[in-house]
Design a protein that fits this description.
Layout: H1 2-19, H2 23-34, H3 39-45, H4 52-91, H5 110-124, E1 128-129, E2 135-137, H6 138-141, E3 166-168, H7 174-183, E4 187-196, E5 208-218, H8 223-238, E6 244-248, E7 254-263, E8 280-289, H9 291-296, E9 305-312, H10 313-321, H11 334-337
Parallel strand pairs: 1-4
Antiparallel strand pairs: 2-3, 4-5, 5-9, 6-7, 7-8, 8-9
Helix pairs in contact: 1-4, 2-4
The structure holds adenosine-5'-[phenylalaninyl-phosphate].
Adenosine-5'-[phenylalaninyl-phosphate] binds at residues 157, 171, 173, 197, 199, 205-206, 209, 211, 251, 254, 257, 282-283, 285-287, 308-310, 312, 314-315, 326.
Amino acid sequence: MLETQLSHLESAALARIQGARSPEELEAVRIEVLGRKGSLTQAGKEMGKVPPEDRARIGKLLNAAKQALESAFESRQRQFDAQALEARLSAEWLDLTLPAPGPQMGHLHPITQIQSEIEDLFVSLGFAVLDGPEVETEYHNFDALNIPADHPARDMQDTFWLTGGNLLRTHTSPVQVRGMERLGPPLRMIAPGRAFRNENVDASHEHTFYQIEGMMVDRDVSVAHLIYFMKTLLTAIFKREVTVRLRPGYFPFVEPGFELDIQCLICGGPGCPVCKQSGWVELLPCGLVNPNVLRMSGIDPDQWNGFAFGLGLTRLAMMRYAIDDIRLLQSGDLRFLQQF
Ligand code: FA5
């Protein structure tokens, strides 16, 4: 009797195992059949009623049914696991044969690019590239350049004063002084770097901007030498004919002093905010070194003379790339910088 019951129970359970549509449904069937109150467990409890001579046989059948069902559960569970894995793999599918997106390359800032070009040019002409401190002494920034404390020329450059008489250098000219002090004559040097002025910022003025100082001290240096080097510089940078004008300029550290302007390359002459509607951009103040400046740095002006210039590197970058607002250069805006 129990024999038939067992065989029905086994085949019904096997059918339900195969028919389970989810791991949850399978688990429910397992509890119903093999759980503490499950049908097979209940059948086991009936063993007491089986006549002793049949017990061994029925017991074996019971064990066999239990094992068969357990392995059927396991294999159905493995099917579900395999399906779940398959579904996950197809969802997380990754094509390892696709080319990887290339690394994003950065590049040098346009000002740095021009600075390097100018350095290369001057090194090829026998100039040393010098560096000087951005926090300067009043002496190097002003006094040693023939601008004593009460000199009106100090007002030409609005200064950020620091404590202890120091300041943020208002131009790169103090590096001339440091170059003369350290290296003595004859001397050919350039000094690229930042300068700081307490100015109102507009399309052509920044509080922090770049200049390149240049100086040559030798015997019998003339304005002709100065003009030769300035022309060589501008031709190398613009790689085309640019219209320049030289007019007298006043700087206490040069005599005679000049302002070398270039015709505005943004508007081509008629006037725009960059050239303040004048058609010309001040780019390269220069001149022959004032004998007082040589003397203060320990160089005998009867033996030596020289020229010096202070190129506005930020303005030069604007002219070269036709940038109509100086503020863009230090904005850190990648959409702007990626164009260079
Ligand atoms: C000077 O700074 C002198 N030291 C230059 C010099 C050196 C003259 C050696 C003679 C001999 P100036 O103040 O004009 O001069 O500035 C030089 C250049 O720096 C200007 O022509 C301009 O191109 C640039 N510049 C000046 N102020 C600013 C500013 N606020 N923003 C951007 N560029 C500026």
